[in-house]
Every structure is written in C-alpha cells, then in structure tokens.
Automatic annotation (TrEMBL):
Single GO term (MF): GMP synthase (glutamine-hydrolyzing) activity
Ranges that cross the membrane: none
Name the UniProt record assigns to this protein: GMP synthase [glutamine-hydrolyzing]
Uppermost EC category: ligase
Reaction(s) catalysed by this chain's protein: XMP + L-glutamine + ATP + H2O = GMP + L-glutamate + AMP + diphosphate + 2 H(+)
Domain GMPS ATP-PPase positions: 2-201
Pathway per the UniProt entry: Purine metabolism; GMP biosynthesis; GMP from XMP (L-Gln route): step 1/1
Gene that encodes the chain: guaA
Presence of keyword ATP-binding: yes
Amino acid sequence: DWNSENVIETQVARIREQVGSARVIAGLSGGVDSAVAAAIVHRAVGDQLTCVFVDHGLLRQGEREQVERDYVAATGIRLITVDAAEVFLRELDGVTDPEQKRKIIGREFIRAFERTQAELVAEAAAEGAEPVKFLVQGTLYPDVVESGGGTGTANIKSHHNVGGLPEDLEFELVEPLRTLFKDEVRAIGRELGLPEEIVARQPFPGPGLGIRIVGAVNHERLETLRAADAIAREELTAAGLDGEIWQCPVVLLADVRSVGVQGDGRTYGHPIVLRPVSSEDAMTADWTRVPYDVLARISNRITNEVREVNRVVLDVTSKPPGTIEWE
Ligand code: XMP
C-alpha cells in the first residue's frame, strides 16, 4: 500500500537506472510539483542535477528567497537563478491584453530557460564531463490523464505553466511524479524535508502577478500589488483559513481610480480586489465566505500600508461564470 517512503525509494531506483551517469536539469517555479520532482531526482543522482530558477520579476514577496535560501538549505541542490525581470518588464511594456501578456511571458520564459540550458550543456562539454541529457518535469497523474484523455474541455485561457518546458528532442524527460496526485506529492515533499511554505503552497499561475494587474505591468504597479498580496496572505494564514481557501488571487485594478479620503486629504487611488475561492480542482469554484473581521483587517491594513491603494473590494462571483484569475 501507499506510503511516501516506498514511493521515494522506487522512484530513486528508477531514476538512477534511467539517467545513469548523465547530467540532469530541472526547472524550478517556486511551486510544489517542480520542487518535489527535483528533490527526488537529487536524492537519486546528487550533483549530476542542476536546478534552474527563472526570476521573471512577477513573483510574490518572499518567493525567490524561499527557493534560493530555504529550498537550497533543505536539499543541498545546485541552483542557478536567472535574473530576467528587466527583460520581462521591457517586453511587457504597455501590454494590456491578457492573452498577449501570457504569450510574452511564456515566450520569454522559454528563452531564458533555454539560454541557461545551453550554457549548462556547454559547461559540461568544456569540463569534459558527462553530457546533459535529461530534463526533469513535475508532471502529475491528473496532467497525464488530461493531456492524453482528450476530455473536450474548452481551452478558455492559454495556460502557461512555469514548470512546463518546451519539448526538446535532445533531452529525455524524467517525470518522477507521473503516477501521483497532489496530496501525495505534498506528503513526499514533507518526507524529503522540504520547507512547508513550498510544500503547502496554494496554486499560483505561471505568468504570476503579470495577470493580476488589470492594465499594463510595470515596476511600480508590481510593488503595489506585491505589498497588498503579502498583507492578504499574512492575514488569511493568521486567521487559520489556508485549509478552507483553495487560493486567493489579489488583483490590482491599475486602470481604475476612485476618490477617497485619507488623513486630511483627498486621494485618487487604485482598488485592490480580493478573490478568495474554495474549490476541489479549479475547474469550478465558489467564493469563500471569509469572516467579516478578517476582511476588515485585510482592508484596513492594505489601505493604511500601501500608498497607491485607497479601496479594497471583494469578488463574490463563483466559477463559472467568473474564472478564478481576473485575466
Ligand atoms: P482560471 O482563472 O482559469 O484558473 O479559473 C484556474 C487555475 O489555473 C491557474 N492558472 C494558471 N496556472 N498558468 C498556470 O500555471 C496559467 O497561465 C494560469 N492561468 C490560471 C489559476 O491560478 C487557477 O488555480
């Protein structure tokens, strides 16, 4: 029967057999799947593995540190962080259409990753080391079923997953999570000693905060959203609501302004939308009945602590008809 130690042992043996003495690359997204997949591969082949983390500048507060500091401390994995924020911001300059944003972010992500991949291949060759032949992917069982099953569900938004990488014929895939469900992946992550912030992380879209700013993305708006999002997450966690909430997008309506009053002055700032949802699988969702006092605390703190924001609103739409994300 199922237990995480058995699964890890079986996968470690399988990976050793598949990979041999070749080198392996894994992309990390900050999410649980890619983190656990890489950690199992590391357990199997140690320093033959190099992880690549593309910082696209659209991450939430603290996420890069969780990967660079906590994850590396827990695993001892060799990690290369690619600082790509400037490139992403330049390419996103003035873009407001959600699909366009997704395309640009997906494209730049692949570019940044492939550049690093090529560098690692060249590095191995220059050292006369074993070649890089494998790519790790955190594919789960539901992903396998969904892509093979042809369920006929309409593709409403072009999903881009930061853990998901381009098909590359030169590389063979290593997919240690292919038979597992999400809660099993979390159990394995805990068994491997990964940080709880990563293991328990709620879903977060690959394009990150880029699709939570309604309007064009820029540095200042990202700072505003990051601050508001950090407050909302902190208060929801403190209120013990993480188990009940599937995820809570925090959205900046950057193209909307409303009049407010703060201190002895009139303000003309932006609204922040809270979108807490309860769901089993993100296909359908209901808005979570977050207690009023928790909402009040979040609202007070955001309007007091985040300069550009003078109004906090709650999204009370289920899915359908609303999607979970606003873009
Ligand atoms: P929607 O907004 O379609 O979201 O109801 C359903 C789930 O998918 C996540 N999401 C994404 N995940 N890349 C991802 O990796 C994307 O482009 C993307 N768009 C939405 C969303 O956060 C929710 O969990």
